[in-house]
Specification:
Length: 819
Amino acid sequence: MLSEPTFNDIKRPLVWEPTNHIPSNQKSKNEDEEDFSDLLTDLRSELQTARDAEERILKDIQNELGRTGAAIGDKDVMHTFDLALSRLNNQIECVEIDSRQLANNLRVVSGLAEKISSKVSALDVAKSRVVECLQRVSDLRDLRTCAEGVEIAMQHENYEEAAKHIHRFLALDSAVFKMGEQIDAKDAGHSMKYSYEILRQAAGNLIGIIEKKFDTAVLSNDTASMERYFKLFPLINEHTSGLQRFGKYLCTKIEKLGDDNYKIMEAGGTDDNRKNLLYSDSLFNIFEGIARIIELHQPLIDNYYGPDKLLDLIGILQAECDRQAIRVINAFIQKRQFEHRAKLVDNYLRKSSSIEKIDPRELDSLLTEVTMMHTRAELYWRFLKRRLGEAPARPLSESDSKDGFEVGKSAEEVFEDEFTEEERRQLNEKLKKQKAERNNKLDLLLNRSALGTKMQELLGKYVLTEQYYMTESVKKAIEMDDVEEGATTSSLLDDVFFIVRKSIERSISSSNVDCVCAMLNNGITLLETDFIKYLQGSIKAGYPSVSWTAEAYQTAQTAYNVLQHGKTVAEAGPETQRRTYLIALNNLRAAISCVGTLKSGLKNVFAKHLTQISNVEQGKLEQSTNQFDDLCRRLGSLAHAAVLKLCDAAFRPKLKTNADAYFDLPHSITEEDFAEFEAVDPFIENFISQLDKHIAQFEQSLVPENYQDLLRAVSIEVVAQLERVIFKCTFNRMGALQLDKEFRQLTSYLTTVAGWSFREKCARVSQIVTLLNAENIQEATEFYQQTSREGNSLSLNDMKKVLFLRNDLPRDKIKLIKA
């Protein structure tokens, strides 16, 4: 048993023993002595530091033991400490023993795990080799079975059975044929090499037979035999050969369809009512026939070749489709003289020297037929995309057939019960990716096809010709602009917006988003230029003023127009000019409603006819239609400016004259004068009466929006004129009260005609009148400070100017007012 440590052992003083320092390099004797002296000094210093630390630790132990002894009384402190130390030592020994046992157990477990792992690995290798061996044995058995079965099937002309044997032979792992002759049977007739040769030769013979039989069936137009042998090509890995031969056969049917349709087209069609759409109907018949052929044979392709091969078949048929469709398009260009007319339009728009203008009415039916032709092509392309998208996603091709997929069965059906949830999810993602790739390939095929290129050329010329048609038709509408009796707007609005809507909706029928966006831009540009420019011409001519000097000038101008331009006095007079101005103003305001109606109507047409567009194309349409909002804002701004111009010409001179009558009245009045003015008003009632009579003249001539805008503008002008005359008068207390009464009466009238929003416009004058009615300087100052906190529209100088208008307030005190 280990001896227990005692307190005396712990109390034994610590002794520090210095380590030996031996220099590594050789020095001279003097240098060694100096280094040794320095080292000795350092060691003595360290020794003293250690002794001090020892004394401090011993002192701390003594103090702690003293406190412990005092706490437990007379018990033996040293004995208690020795027992505690002994127990701690025993516990440490137990922990050390347990740790060693745990380490030994872990080493044993680790060794067992390594042995088990090596045995499991060996079992996995053995299992994989057994499975591989079984597979090889099964393949060898299949190879012999196929060799025996293919000979019998070929002898009995059972080509379906022979093709299945060849399909299985081609699906065998190539490692089977590299195994050599180690496991050959004794009978040479059953050797692996012999079976391989039999099957290889049978495969070659079967390919030749199937191709020959298929060609014979095509020549004899035996549809059942054609389908029979067409199904055998994928079993012998001849997908391409089968599709090429079958596609060639279908191309002959398309060619016959195109020839028959072309003969009907040259004869003038079958419906005289649709002669304007003869060529678009011919294209429709061709596309419909091709679509019917594809729809009829798609199940055959999907079930025996796979949906990826449907795309290959479409590529084969597209060449013949292009040839037949372009033949019709070229006939259209030649018979309808579309190329010639497009060149004339281009030259006219470019301002060429040899300009030959075309009547836009001649282009109407031509443009409609162009859009219908593109619509037919677009519908055919959508049909192809839909059929390709609906095809079952079965990845069966030449490479896939080697994986053992059963012909005519989808991947989901083959592994539906064997796939885990994660594997099924990965398979679905793979199939979605394959569908997307097929759609991208189809888009590329159609866009690069001869038909796609030709349609793009037609659309480019269509957009140019449609722009010409729209521009010239709008110019014609401007020339024929007329106003019916009692109408507030002219015929220009209905004609122009009908033409613009007609052209844009015609472009929508092409089903091409880029074409629609181009026509939207052209239509909006036309409204922003020719349409607005025409209306602005009448606005810039101005509204004849009502002052006598303006009337004299207008009389001279009327006489000049009569002499120079041969106009009558009625046509060139100010009354006609006023009516023209008001009609143009109403047209500007009413055009905002027409633009809004046009935009909402086009959006409804988009939702009805452009349903299968991408997010990018949807963004293009929204960006183009948003330009209508900018056009509405511009029309609103022009209409408001025209209303202000009308107010300046028709109201400002009369308002100024009527307001100047205020100068003729006394404004420093007595109480008797105030009472008399209350009985018989000297100014404001007549002012309001004249204003109301003048405003009423425009109520029937303006559309409601312009009339309300005019009322607001006139109200603001009235307030401005009132402020002008106030600052040119002086008032006493009673005169200010009279002004306040008149101002309240005026604002009540203006609020009635212009609405409550008008009160915000007269806040400044209201503050001026309130300041003029102050009894003293202090009351005026308090009111100004209160309104300053609420947002005062008067500055300190304006306040002083107002108070200076009171002749009964001390001017020196007004000058001393500070903010």
